[in-house]
C-alpha cells in the first residue's frame, strides 16, 4: 500500500464528473465516489470510472443493522472497487457482517474502512448533541480498535488523529484522512483540518481532497500541488 491523494468527486452528474476527470491526462488519480454522485447516477458511474483506469474509493458510509449491511456489501462487492466504508458507530457485529458480505467466493475483497468521527464534528458537537463525553481523540481510537478487532483494514479520521491511530492500533492499519486544506485555502464546513504536508508528517496513508481540487481554477495544478506536498 502506497501513500496517495484521493480526489473526492462530489459532482451531481456523470457528465460533470467525466469532464473533470478528462483534465487528468498524465496520471489517473485515485477517485472517491460519494453519496451525491452515486445517488444521482447509480452503480454504472462506478463501472465507467473504473473502466477509465482509476482506482476507486466508494464512500457510501453504510450504517444499518448487520444483516442489511452484509447484503448491501455483497451487492457492492460486484463493483470491483478498491475501497469501501461504513460507520464504526454501527458496532462490531455490523462491521463483521460487512466484511462477510464484501468478501468474494475466491477470498478477495476491497479494503474496508470505518468512519470514526466525521471531520466536520467538533468536541462540542460530540458532547452537546451526540452525548459522547470522551475526548475526541479517545473516541476515534476506541472506534479504530473496534474496527481492527472486527477485521477491518483501517479508518477514516482527521489527519490529526492518524499518528495516534498508527501508534495504538497498528502501523499497518490504514488511515484515510479528509479535512485537508492548503495553507492559503478555505476550510468550508470542515473543522479538524490540516495541510497535505502536515498530514504526511503526522502519518496519513491516504488524504481525501475535494473542493481544494474540484473548485480550483486549475484543478490539475491543485492536484499536483497536493500530491507534491503530501507524497514529496
Ligand atoms: O471538499 P472536501 O475536501 O471537504 O471533501 C471531503 C470529502 O471527504 C467529502 O466527500 C466528504 O463526504 C468526505 N468525508 C469527510 N469526513 C469524513 C468522511 C468522509 O469529509 N469523516
Overall description:
It is built from 11 helices and 8 strands. By secondary structure, it is of the alpha/beta class. The chain has one domain: TIM Barrel. An 8-stranded parallel beta barrel has the order 1-2-3-4-5-6-7-8, surrounded by 6 helices. α4 (66-76) packs parallel to α5 and α8 (159-169) runs parallel beside α9. The longest helix has 14 residues, at 136-149. It is globular. The relative contact order is 0.14. The model has no long low-confidence stretch (mean pLDDT 96). Cytidine-5'-monophosphate binds at residues 8, 10, 34, 59, 115, 118-119, 156, 178-179, 188, 190, 208-212.
Helix and strand arrangement:
Blueprint: E1 4-8, H1 14-22, E2 30-33, H2 35-41, H3 44-51, E3 56-62, H4 66-76, E4 83-87, H5 92-102, E5 111-115, H6 123-128, H7 136-149, E6 154-156, H8 159-169, E7 174-177, H9 196-202, E8 206-209, H10 211-214, H11 219-231
Parallel strand pairs: 1-2, 1-8, 2-3, 3-4, 4-5, 5-6, 6-7, 7-8
Helix pairs in contact: 4-5, 7-8, 8-9, 9-11
The structure holds cytidine-5'-monophosphate (C5P).
Residues 8, 10, 34, 59, 115, 118-119, 156, 178-179, 188, 190, 208-212 line the site of cytidine-5'-monophosphate.
Amino acid at each position: 500500500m502506497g501513500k496517495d491523494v484521493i480526489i473526492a468527486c462530489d459532482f451531481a452528474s456523470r457528465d460533470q464528473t467525466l469532464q473533470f476527470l478528462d483534465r487528468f491526462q498524465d496520471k489517473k488519480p485515485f477517485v472517491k465516489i460519494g453519496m451525491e454522485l452515486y445517488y444521482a447516477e447509480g452503480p454504472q458511474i462506478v463501472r465507467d470510472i473504473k473502466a477509465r483506469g482509476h482506482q476507486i474509493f466508494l464512500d457510501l458510509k453504510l450504517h444499518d443493522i448487520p444483516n442489511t449491511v452484509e447484503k448491501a456489501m455483497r451487492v457492492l462487492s460486484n463493483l470491483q472497487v478498491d475501497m469501501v466504508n461504513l460507520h464504526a458507530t454501527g458496532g462490531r457485529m455490523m462491521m463483521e457482517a460487512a466484511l462477510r458480505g464484501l468478501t468474494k467466493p475466491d477470498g478477495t475483497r476491497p479494503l474496508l474502512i470505518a468512519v470514526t468521527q466525521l471531520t466536520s464534528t467538533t468536541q462540542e458537537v460530540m458532547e452537546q448533541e451526540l452525548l459522547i463525553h470522551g475526548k475526541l481523540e479517545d473516541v476515534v481510537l476506541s472506534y479504530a480498535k473496534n474496527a481492527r478487532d472486527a477485521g477491518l483494514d483501517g479508518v477514516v479520521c482527521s489527519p490529526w488523529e492518524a499518528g495516534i491511530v498508527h501508534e495504538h492500533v497498528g502501523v499497518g492499519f490504514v488511515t484515510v484522512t479528509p479535512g485537508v486544506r492548503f495553507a492559503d485555502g478555505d476550510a468550508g464546513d470542515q473543522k479538524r483540518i490540516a495541510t497535505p504536508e502536515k498530514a504526511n508528517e503526522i502519518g496519513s496513508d491516504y488524504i481525501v481532497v475535494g473542493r481544494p481540487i474540484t473548485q480550483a481554477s486549475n484543478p490539475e495544478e491543485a492536484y499536483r500541488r497536493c500530491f507534491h506536498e503530501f507524497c514529496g
